[in-house]
Amino acid sequence: MSDTETRHSRHIEARGRVTATVAPDYSDFRAIRGLQIFGTARRLAGGESLATARRMISRYGFLAELASGPPALRAAFEKAGFYCSSPSGSP
After folding, report:
1. How far lies 11's CA from each of 17, 51, 74, in Å?
2. CA diameter of the chain
3. For residues 3-9, average pLDDT
């Protein structure tokens, strides 16, 4: 889920190739451990996007608050895009 106007969202629309890193926060740079993923991504549309939004709201309760919150937050949530990534074997 991301604002469709961000640089990374525009990059996904243009190329579809992505790299992501999953790691917890660390205070010691030398101790960092995580996972780096390479692959493709695409913006979800229509029913697929709506179903994903519903799953996200049911999983993360704070999103329901955004969806029913003040107009500015609601507008930001409603214009957000949902994306699906698929890992591949190499960059």
Report:
1. 8, 24, 25
2. 44
3. 93
Going 7 to 9 to 12 to 18, the CA torsion angle's sign is positive
SS3 call for 86: strand
Question: Which of 4-8, 59-63, 66-70 is most confident?
Answer: 4-8
Confidence (pLDDT) at 13: 94
Tokens read off for 30: 């030398």
Count helices and strands in the chain by DSSP H and E runs = 4, 5
First to last CA, the chain: 23
Locate all alpha helices (DSSP H) within 1-91, ordered by sequence: 7-14, 46-59, 61-67, 71-79
pTM of the shown model: 0.73
Query: What amino acid occupies position 46?
Result: G
Output 36 or 73, whichever has higher pLDDT: 36
